[in-house]
Amino acid sequence: MELTTLWFALIAFLWTGYFVLEGFDFGVGMLVPVLAGDEAERKQVLGTIGPVWDGNEVWLITAVGAMFAAFPAWYAGMLSTFYLPILLILAGLIVRGVGLEWRAKVHHASDRAWCDLGVLVGSALPAFLWGAVFADLLRGSATAALVGGAFSLSLCVLHGAVFVALKTSGPVRSRARRAAVVAAAAALPAAVVALSNIPVAGTEGTAPSAAPWLWGTALAAMAALAAGVALTWRGRDGWAFTATASSIALGSAALFGALWPAPLPGLTVAEAASGPYTLGMLTWIGLIALPFVLGYQAWSYWVFRRRLTADVS
Fold first, then answer.
1. How many CB atoms lie within 10 A of CB 202?
2. Which of 2, 80, 124, 188 has its CA 20 to 30 A from that of 228?
3. How far is residue 164 from each of residues 4, 27, 46, 122, measured CA to CA in Å?
4. pLDDT tens string 170-182
5. Residue 140 — very low, low, confident or very high, per pLDDT cuts 50/70/90?
6. What angle do CA 168, 169, 171 make, to 5 degrees?
């Protein structure tokens, strides 16, 4: 495998990890007012992401850093083209982080309400805008951006509801299951529209031989999403979360498959790549560092695997 192909695949993997892990973070942040009836339940809901949300953001930093090092022209073109939405995404992430951190340090209900609002807005903005950015990058139209944003927003809400059902007990868990079913009413139609717009053979930036693989992956993503909703309805929370995570991963695979070999209009992966020496050095660094990062994050999820109750401190 050529190093340019390897690094494109690795960057796709990093973005996929970010979408899967931050996807439920964003969903949980947006669902706090819906799932929590009092302060104890708000702590319970936010406690599901408390130990992991900042670690999940490392995937974004790593993905963007890898783009900068391996494909500087892709990095520069994407960030300059979508300067305003990416700026709003960063602002949302900052506001969300401040809300999550300050919430445990303030003592007045009004101050906590402002923190909760910051978490909600700071979760909704990236959830919508990342979908809009990548849909616009793929199809190049405002309509596609709106559809992509609606799809990613509704999918994050569904993914977050399934995660809360997996991680909590009591009334919050029951509400989370109902919220997942309601969110599916928006996510499933949006998925059909968004994933059916994957470019077909012969369109710009898509290799003709890739079309059957792209369509198959998109259909598998829709099937996994539907399975997640059915499993949630049946109370199989662990399998439901696996299904919604698989749906996001498959959708991301279809997205990056459609971006190959031209991630930007008029710019191929080969043209955007750094030199062979740089890619070679990056490969050795990645081979050494990536297993430790993945191992540490897997360990942290294992440590904090227990369900949370409403009396969580």
1. 9
2. 124
3. 39, 9, 9, 18
4. 899 999 999 999 9
5. confident
6. 110
